[in-house]
Amino acid sequence: MNTTMIVDVPRQALRTGIDVGAAAVRLPVERLAERFGDGECWPPLLTVDAVLAGVRETVGGVLHDETLQRAGRLEAARVSRLREAIELETVAEYRRDEATQEYDEAREKAESRRAAAVEQADRRREQAAGQRRAADKHAEQTAAVRTRQAAEKQTQDEANLQKDARQARGRNAARATTAVRDAEAALAAEDAALELQEEIETSRTRRRRS
Question: Whole-prediction pTM value?
Answer without folding.
Answer: 0.45
